[in-house]
Amino acid sequence: MIRLNCFIRVKSPENHDQVLSDALLLTENSLTENGCIAYDVFQSASRPDVLMICETWADEASLEAHSKTELFHRLTTNMRALADFKTERFTF
Hints:
Blueprint: E1 2-10, H1 16-30, E2 36-43, E3 50-57, H2 60-67, H3 70-82, E4 83-91
Helix pairs in contact: 1-3
């Protein structure tokens, strides 16, 4: 299994709702994809500019297929324009 923790820092408060909306739409659709075990969005309780997406995938092929979808590209491009990202990857 592969776990990704994607930390998102929204660049300005007026972009928060758009980034969160994109993250939630990505989550909703990703949960329907083959090999997706878990996909969650978390909001920091102490820093409103920080979100985290935690994804768990069955295998590399599932994660790769996910990263090639049109929706993934569109939403992550939108989010990256409005926020900074840092991703941690764990294989277990």
